[in-house]
Amino acid sequence: MSSIRLQRSRAVSTRVQHLCSAASALPLAIALCVSPAAAQTSDAVHHGDAITVTGVRQAYRGDFALREIPQSIAEIDAETLQQNNILRLTDALDMNASVARQNTLGGLWDSFAIRGFAGDENLPSGYLVNGFNAGRGFGGQRDVAGIERVEVLKGPAATLIGRGEPGGTINLVTKQAEVGRSFGTATLQYGSYDRVRADADANLALTNGVSARLIGYYEEGDSFRDYVHQTRWGFLPSIGVALSDRTRLTYDFEWTRVEVPFDRGIVVLNGDFDTVPRSRFLGEPGDRDTVARATGHQLRLEHDLNDDWSLLVGASHRDTLLTGFSSDAETVASRQMLYVDGHSLSRQRRSRRYDAEHSVLRAELSGQFETGALRHRILIGGDFDQFEYDNYFTRFRPPAVSSVPSNEAGYVIDIDNPVYGQYPLPDTTVITNRLDTQRSFGFYVQDQIELTDRLQIRIGGRYDNLRLETDNSLSAVLSKRSRSRFSPQAGIVYELNDPLTLYAAYGQGYRANVGTDAQGVIFDPETSESIEAGLKLTALGGKLTGTFALYQLTKDNVLASDANNPGFSVAIGKARSRGVELNLNGHLPGDVDVLLSYAYTDAEARSSVLDPNYSFQINPGDRLINIPRHSLNVQAAKHFTIAEREGQLGAGVQYVGKRSGETGTDFMLPSHTLVRLFGHVELIDGLELFGTVTNLFDEHWYASSYASVWVQPGAPRTATIGLRARF
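User: That's the sequence. What structure does it adopt?
Assistant: Structure tokens below.
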């Protein structure tokens, strides 16, 4: 470890140089360009001598209504999050049928697929925070306490957003300080399994031009899983400064911590999902908690140059660290006693220290101009992105079953009658000691041209230079590689009539693969190509919006097992996803809120390769893991008034079809249908009582799977009641 710490210190010393050079380069690059559209999500107005800023501009969006964007975009807003008392990003993403749950590393990171495509299943999924790449790392599952809304941007968006997942991008818009206002909420709730949570959100107008928003939460309790007690807390303040009616400075801070036992879930033997109760913990309580923590900073300066042009400059830095031990079921059949006697589960013991730093600089100029009869709305920008991942991993594995090991040697637990702590915790051996560094510069331009009152076209492109470095302390091999790529995009939007708009789009994207092959050569990036067409609805004065979309995605250079070098991978795999989506969201007459999200997803492998984790054979046509063909989320909520007190009652249904539970095998997770109820009522002015019930009919369901011995069961019927005060 001493060598890798020395390398880390050197990397830290050079990081400052790279950030400084990037900081000077970006404004210069943008100054050389002459365009971008003033994003209208930020409005500053004068009220006497006070400056009130009512919103914050979002990077990558520009001055476009959703119906003008040739891309399917779904929003999960603050009201939906609050109605369902959603606390985690994973649960929020369930509200959109195009997003499917993936491997969560024992419940310790967020992992999802959009339109059937996920990133590296051995890493958490990346996401944006306020339009900036800021979600990479190992800070635990994201809490929604500081989130205003979740945007699901479908399809590759490399032109504006840069390197990312081919199926789409998740953007988290945080709760930010609102200048000129004072308000707040405080919530206390109690739920099943003695879960207690308190959170507070206070926006304070400190002066006419300065406000602070203080957000904090604390949560503690058991779960339906035996021996799984969790503690979570966080502090998420934001400071907003209106330097003038055209200029705003925003600083956001993130400090979070999660403490929870590592939990791989249950085993499913011979397709029997009742092999063990869904509550049974098959790890080892003696491993104690795994701890994930994050510290983040984001600073953004927004300036309206005039009525037509705006500039957004920002930087973010996030440190994350995940540490802990776990005892996990052995996944290789030749080492697994369970397949011999049906009750003795051979286990691995693992330790992890995943230390990551992610730094981003971004600048974007947006504006509009006319050339003759044509109106141009332009985005021009650049960014610098550096991600460092220090991966230190150790492991004990049970011996082959053929050697007839003792129960102690196999670190066995009886799945029918588990006795924890029966054997000494085995020592582990270092498997990975590696520092991966990804550093990239990118520049992009997008022009949306209004040809007529009804017809618009969008063209754009992005150039990226990506530098990858892997320092493997075990093999003493330092690998470096540089790649450049141009990612084009094109789209068209045609307004049929007032409520309906047709659109079509084409785009390319890419995502860097982490690690090297058997020769120490860094993998080629994963590349993708997308085409989609659809219809957008805007009705009832904008209160009801919807999208119908058809799409096809392909990706190349997917990691697969190296048949000639066991334990190593090669980037030769291919996959394809195509499907149909329908989304509807809004407010109907009669004070009824509705949400409908349906997705048909046909995602499959398109080449014959070996799975990189288990070396199972993957054939063309094999379904991608954890991707259902059909998924649906629908809910409705009715507002009412009783005795001059306002309230709401609502219900929702989520359906997820059967899906592959293990790559390269015929193991399938069954479909499930979950029903939820929610509501609230105002008790007195400023104080409301709320409650939720999830999985109303107590269905046995399974959130995701990595293998038949690593299946994550879903929670049974769960209820929550709470009080929310507003001021």
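The longest helix spans residues 2-31.
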